[in-house]
């Protein structure tokens, strides 16, 4: 995968990721592109073809010699070294009661961790904390492994940016909508972001997860939209403003086009840069400037990192 114009890890590279990239490329290259190149080599070596394929050849090539499906795990999966070096191989433990799409993504994700064990063994074959940068890079690798770019471009051609398109593509490749959105972003096909919201006991909605964009405390200028989508169970669409506070307390605004829909006990919001946007006449959140204590006001640019 070619490097993007703005590298997804340009602002947060752990020691592990810096060492990993430097040893693979010999330079301070783009981590996402580095992982992408390794995945492309793996795909070719495994002879993967079509939209849906078995991951068994990949497991064998990456020295995963045992896979265990366990019930009632508190996590999706984990890779365990069977020796003191990469050649000793690995055991993969996967949560059995996840959805098939989730299990498939977990296997691909954990497989990507083996690259770090191979390339940076002195950091991986010792007690270590979970590295968020490594986790994000493995998410990118998993999405690229499961969703080949050429096939994705062909499938996505002519599709609008919507939940319907996202679900159609996810179903075609047997992945989750979250994994598909991540792949569409890292491939440069979509700039959309997906957020997951939960209803709190007090009646307000709280941001639970952010896929493909900046994880800040976003607020809706028209908070009733969330309640409307929740109560009616209909997919709502339109244009609005999203806002968050920066580190200096300034108010950052983004004009977005959105779709909102309820899924189980959560709300999903798909939003992105509108092709043409006209401010709504009423923006209740921003009319109450006294309670918000606005120190400054500026427009927030979308995060194009592709990292959830």
Mean pLDDT: 85
Strand content: 15-25%
For the record, what CATH class of the largest domain applies? Mainly Alpha
Number of domains: 2
Over the alpha carbons, how many angstroms does the gyration radius reach? 21 Å
The SSE order reads HHHEEEHHHHHHEEEHEEEHHE
The beta-strand count equals 10
Poorly predicted ranges: 1-11, 276-299, 304-308
Structural class: alpha+beta
Helix content: 25-40%
From the N-terminal CA to the C-terminal CA, the straight-line distance is 19 Å
Description:
This protein has 308 residues and is of the alpha+beta class. It folds into 2 domains: 15-148, Arc Repressor Mutant, subunit A (Orthogonal Bundle); 193-299, no CATH class. It is 38% helix and 22% strand. The protein has helices spanning 15-25, 31-46, 56-61, 100-119, 121-124, 132-146, 149-156, 163-173, 177-186, 224-232, 284-287, 289-292, and strands spanning 64-70, 77-81, 90-95, 193-199, 205-211, 219-220, 236-245, 251-263, 266-272, 297-299. Strands 4, 5, 6, 7, 8, 9 and 10 form a 7-stranded mixed β-sheet that branches. Strands 1-3-2 form a 3-stranded mixed β-sheet. Strand 7 and strand 8 form a beta hairpin. It is globular, with a radius of gyration of 21 Å. Residues 1-11, 276-299 and 304-308 have low confidence and may be disordered.
């Amino acid at each position: 995968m070619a490097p993007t114009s703005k590298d997804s890890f340009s602002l947060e590279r752990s020691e592990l990721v810096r060492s990993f990239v430097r040893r693979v490329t010999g330079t301070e290259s783009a981590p996402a592109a580095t992982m992408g190149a390794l995945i492309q080599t793996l795909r070719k070596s495994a002879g993967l073809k079509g939209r849906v394929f078995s991951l068994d050849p990949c497991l064998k090539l990456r020295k995963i010699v045992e896979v265990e499906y366990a019930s009632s795990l508190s996590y999706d999966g984990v890779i365990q070294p069977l020796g003191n070096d990469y050649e000793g191989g690995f055991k993969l433990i996967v949560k059995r009661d996840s959805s098939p799409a989730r299990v498939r993504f977990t296997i691909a994700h954990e497989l990507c961790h083996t690259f770090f064990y191979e390339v940076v063994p002195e950091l991986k074959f010792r007690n270590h904390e979970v590295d968020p940068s490594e986790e994000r890079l493995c998410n990118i690798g998993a999405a690229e492994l499961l969703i080949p770019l050429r096939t994705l471009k062909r499938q996505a051609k002519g599709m609008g940016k919507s939940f319907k398109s996202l679900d159609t593509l996810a179903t075609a490749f047997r992945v989750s909508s979250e994994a598909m959105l991540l792949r569409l972003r890292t491939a440069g096909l979509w700039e959309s972001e997906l957020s997951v919201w939960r209803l709190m006991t007090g009646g307000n909605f709280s941001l639970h997860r952010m896929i493909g964009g900046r994880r800040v405390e976003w607020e809706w200028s028209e908070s009733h939209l969330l309640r409307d989508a929740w109560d009616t169970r209909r997919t709502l669409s339109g244009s609005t403003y999203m806002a968050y506070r920066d580190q200096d307390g300034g108010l950052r605004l983004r004009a977005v086009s959105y779709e909102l829909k309820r899924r189980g006990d959560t709300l999903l919001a798909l939003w992105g840069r509108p092709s043409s946007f006209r401010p709504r006449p009423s923006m209740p959140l921003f009319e109450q400037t006294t309670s918000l204590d606005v120190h400054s006001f500026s427009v927030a640019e979308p995060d194009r990192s592709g990292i959830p």
